[in-house]
Amino acid sequence: MAPLELPSAHHHICNDNITPDAPDVLYHLGLSYSKSNCCEVASIFGDVKFFVCGGSAERMKNFAHKIAEKLQIETPFGYALAPIGSTSRYVIYKVGPVLIANHGMGMPSTSILLHEVTKLLEHAGAQNAVYIRMGTSGGVGVAGGTVVVSSEGLNHELRAVHQIPILGKVHERVATLDPAIALEIAATCEALGLPHTIGKTLSCDDFYEEQGRLDGAICEYTNEDKMAFLQAAYDAGTRNIEMEARMFAAFTHKLNIPAAVVCVTLLNRLDGDQITQPHSVLESYDERPMAVLLEYIKAKTTEM
């Protein structure tokens, strides 16, 4: 089937049902768009050049304050989100040209955020914002504390495709990321003196069994089975394992959105499953992707 033509008013939307005249409820963000508030949406979000997301709400709040300081913006613009039931799904901040949100854990939660933020930015008229996921991961053949800049997201077959069931049929989407942005971010790591690599990222829908851990409530394979799989993943170019990069890459690639995934490793899975480093060391690791993106965004905004 030939791809749909994009509506002339949108650059990163592949849906003829989304038009400037149609109201759009961004339910999980607690926001909405209509002809009556289009100017307000544009005034708030139209200048966004970077969308940075990560799993933890607290981590993204911390990043919002740090980017405000880095860009010398006195007060972050915090956006209060409507809760779903007894909890809020996402928190979102806007700091100058940077939109920041948490995506929760796993690809389904991340997918909802990406759909709604992408529509928000299109409604606002934001042009070619760079999407970046940052977070933590398990290393494969690299030491804890290594910043891995993903080249692509892999599935359980170690293929760079993301499968999504649509109306009873499974569709495959290419899950690759922008190589030029990856090189720029790697250069920033180099300038900061941080251990880093560009490599493939295995993305899983489960933290325990699908990642081959031996410490879940269910484990029906041996340590030898696990090591054989992890070695095969390493040989295929995998350098870390997490739970979002594949879908993130497939979504952004499908819509021609420039994107990157930057995650620090907390351990080398070839050496074991349990994180044994002291909390202070893990905290220092957690700061590394943040430090890299602060420098990267500062440099890019200076060029604008």
Which features characterize this protein?
single chain; 304 residues; alpha/beta; Rossmann fold; five-stranded mixed β-barrel; two-stranded antiparallel ribbon; 7 helices; 13 strands; 34% helix; 25% strand; disordered N terminus
Characterise this structure:
With 304 residues, this protein is of the alpha/beta class. The protein has two domains: 111 residues, Rossmann fold; 170 residues, Nucleoside phosphorylase domain (Rossmann fold), CATH 3.40.50. It contains seven helices and 13 strands. The strands form three sheets. A five-stranded mixed beta barrel has the order 7-12-11-8-13, surrounded by four helices. It has a two-stranded antiparallel sheet with strand order 1-2. A two-stranded antiparallel ribbon has the order 9-10. A hairpin with a 4-residue loop joins strand 1 and strand 2. The radius of gyration is 19 Å and the shape is globular. It comes from Achlya hypogyna (Oomycete). InterPro entries: Nucleoside_phosphorylase_d, Nucleoside_phosphorylase_sf, Uridine_phosphorylase_euk. Pfam families: PNP_UDP_1. Belongs to the PNP/UDP phosphorylase family.
CATH architecture of the largest domain: 3-Layer(aba) Sandwich
Structural class: alpha/beta
Q: Order of strands in the sheet with the most strands?
A: 7-12-11-8-13
For the sheet with most strands, the description reads:
5 strands, mixed, barrel
InterPro entries: Nucleoside_phosphorylase_d, Nucleoside_phosphorylase_sf, Uridine_phosphorylase_euk
Organism: Achlya hypogyna (Oomycete)
GO biological process, one term: uridine catabolic process
Binding site for phosphate: 89, 133-136
